[in-house]
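Response regulator
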Amino acid sequence: MNQAVNGRGHLNMEKKIGLESLKRNTDFLRINHIDFYILDYSIENRLSNEEYSSVWRTVKELLPYNSFFLEMGLSRAAVILPEKSAEEAGRLLDATIETAGKGEGFTAVFQGKVCRDITEDLELEGITYEKSVDPELISIHEETETASFEKNLRLSILDDDEVIRMFLGDQLDAVDWGEWAVDLQVYREGESFLNSGRLQEEGKHIIVLDGIMPRMDGMEVLSEIRKKYSEKEVSIIMLTSRNRENDIVSALEAGAFDYVTKPFKINELIARIKRVAKRMENVDD
């Protein structure tokens, strides 16, 4: 009896954590005027743990690269689809259900729907958002002549949130950085970044650094970097949900050049990165 209660409690906690992550990531897309749909999946028949895992693994394999998959217990999952039409979302929902429902030796009975926004139960609300892009900050994918660059800029994104990593990677890769030849890399956590040899690469470095990450948090990464590199060599912009005055002051005193709190607007972050690059451009080597 206690075991069953504990099991339900664990699943309820997984659903709660999944919904919180879903809200956080859709809020991020919304504040940046990025349209999205949500695919809501539930499996109606009872399967073994291995069969549930097999179903969700198949679903994830069929999703586009910029989608975000969230499990909310064994039998429930949601997928955020940025920049897709309702028709595309519907076709993807049908395709994933048809393929993932046919396992080896079992069948998963799915219920699925396309949602426009979320409530606690992921109900379809029919809300639409206008997508707006600032043409001066974000370029359309166009072929341009290769320019002759003299300055190398290493731009690194450290964030454990998959949606933010993919979004920043896409948006920052499209920015016109002027005379800087920008090499953009993204990392999930600080330890792998510090061990990657990235900071030994030639050129100036700008790091957009999340405050809360697994294994090493942002302040620990900041401290390790400042033991070896000055602001002239490596400039750091904190990008974090920690918004208390003490957190901001501590980061700036520890060597961060700027501090941006989540949720954030992409155009503002781009402007801040450009300001840092301009300052580094005026610093004599």
